[in-house]
Amino acid sequence: MRVREKGDRGVVQSVVLFLGVSVLSGALAAGLAIPFAGLAGFTTEKTSDTLQDLPQQFDEVPLKQKSTILAADGSVIATLAEQNRVPVKLKDVAPIMQKAIVAIEDDRFYEHGALDAKGTLRALLQNQSSGSVQQGGSSITQQYVKISLVEKAKTPAEVAAATADTYQRKVAELRYAIAVEKQYSKNEILEKYLNLANFGDGAWGIQAAAQHYFSVNASQLTLPQAAMLAGLVKNPTGYDPTNNPSRAKERRDVVLRRMLQLNVISVSQANSALKTPVIDPNKVRPNKLGCANGPYPFYCEYVVAELEDNAAFGKTKTERANYIKTAGLTIRTSLDPKIQADAQRSIDTHSKPTDQAIAAITIVEPGTGLVKAMAQSRKYGNKRGQTAYNYNAPKTYPGGYGGFQNGSTMKAFTIAAAIQKGIPLNYKINSPSPLPMGGQKFSTCDGTYTTEKGYSPKNSTSNVSDPNMIQAAQKSTNTYFLQLSQRTGLCPIAKIAAALGMYDAQSLGGLDQVASMTLGVGYITPLQLANAYAAFAARGMYCTPWAVTTVKDSANKSVSIPGANCKQVLAPEVADGVNAVLHEVMEPNGTGGKLKFGKSDLAGKTGTIQDAKAVWYAGYSTKLAAAATVADASLPYTKLQNQTLNGKRINDPSGSGTAGPIWEAAMKAALQGYPTTRFVAPTDKTQRGDVKSLPFVNGMNPEDAANKLRQAGFEVAIASGTVNSEETAGTVAYTDPRQRDGAPDGSLVTIYVSNGSKSKPTTPTNTTKPPGTTKPPSTPTTLNPNCPPWNPKYPNCGGRGR
Known about the structure:
The chain is α+β, with helices and mostly antiparallel strands. It folds into three domains: about 1-55 and about 110-185, no CATH class; about 335-545 and about 565-690, DD-peptidase/beta-lactamase superfamily (Beta-lactamase); about 690-765 and about 775-800, Trypsin Inhibitor V, Chain A (2-Layer Sandwich). The chain contains 24 helices and 24 strands. It is elongated.
């Protein structure tokens, strides 16, 4: 009996409450604010304050729309979103869908105002008599307001306030609903509601839901499909057909029966729909949101990081990240799917994800800085053979591994510094192996660096004893470049490297200025190295690497982005000289000779760090530049020898033999379709340098000649053995460089000693010639095989120099 009395009392309270709400809604509609002290659950002061504080207009919440990242050809790289939503107009929503949502959520939607008094009373009585919530009393307009307030909430406290089960919140919601009904037509409200509602399993809005569950557009929805989606909004998680198809079907059938009850559909339509499976699992389209679910996750994260650095998207990184995922942006990037596929194919051909060593390559475009491709051997993920590290990027980017020591690829910057100083390409230095350099001083930007006692570097390949710059680059002669960097000073090398984007990718500081700088220093990424070498290809024009080419908002209006950032950091003549030297590395005598392909000019440089823990090949044409590395990326780092690459043991790791084939295959495929291109030939001054006159020493005693040359500011070496010459045996036959051609100040001059084999015979006293005789033809001069590769303008290397 008590239960009945209690139930009766609850019904009476509900009726009183309903009547109060009805009166209140009328008062609100009239713009009044009156207290209802007698209504259960209301506090007069709070209610009055709430009503008077509410605005008379409802500010529409901006829809959170997914942003799309595109490759250069318009293909999708990734979808970024907090909510997977594609807004549509009501005219693009199937009429049966509109009828289904109205039938189950608010069948008198087109007849009442902000509050459906009849529907509310029915729901109150039904819920009270059943002892549980069976029907909702909120109109579609009220539901739209509630969802909007939750969407506007920026903090957990605001979300709690927007969903609090209090009369104050209900009254506020109602007042907003009245404002909405004044601002918009019923169809406009329904459109906003359908675009804002949560349809479960990551689908927000009717278009995303239709595509997700049925692989159709909202305009194509059928009756059973529409009924299923209409049933979801009550409990998107509980009725999710992908997780609980039986509950989803029960709820869908409730919607169908309600539509039949309201004569929206016929009995035959209802029966047919009730027999239809709730979904076809084969047509469910996964919501692949975020970079991790795209085809190029590492490149995608690099792009997102670039976007989050753009102040146009917000004051803080958090604001920018939120804007990027909710503003409905269309972001086009520089990624070329063909070149990316070429790079990844080369990686996959020469390595495996389960290898001990990793392989990575980046390809960029000279003259723009556009990043065309990033590929690596380990895929994105946390399983075996997977990683979250981007081995191509520095630590300034989320997931950036931070690079590896880059070995002799640093020699390119020493070459640039030498050419910039006026040292010619034919500059020779005696380069023995090993070379005692203990206690040697190197000038730096901050003073002097002195090598340790016992420092005695070696060469990894054999070469002529006195190589010039080209020959030294071809064989990557360490002792030559150490001495060359001592002559240029380390500061110019460091400044050129920094201007070309070279910094320590781990510490993010500058590269250390130490004696071994030219042999590799600090940690460098393929992205940095490829982009630095691209500046040589672009004749000294360095462009900051970038990937985002255009951004458009949801209204298809362009959003400001930084764009290309290029500046001339090297004189074109200097870059031309570097290209000439590194081009010879890829000729038959060079370490990269086996990697040459095609008709276009190519240039490159190998790199192997100490103990071969990483090996490199970086190279370029005028159209594309790339840097490939194979390295140990797992602590504790060990030498590559005996590690696995492509499932096989590495026997002799090298830049040309291990990383080189990756570079070659990727670039050979990537450059297909590009026109044949050539480097600009270096100037005569670049080849010969800023020369000064050499004193004439032919015919002198070698030691006297050496002293004379030293006094003139040159270094001197006396070649072993003798050469054929007209000079008296034991005297100077000639010098290299020749006296007539001159040499840069401080450069090495080699003295060759004559054996006197071509000395002229003693002239007879009687020089009278018989009548009719003619002068015998002169014997052609024999060229010295030790002559350097002079410019065609200076071909006369043999004979008696003057």
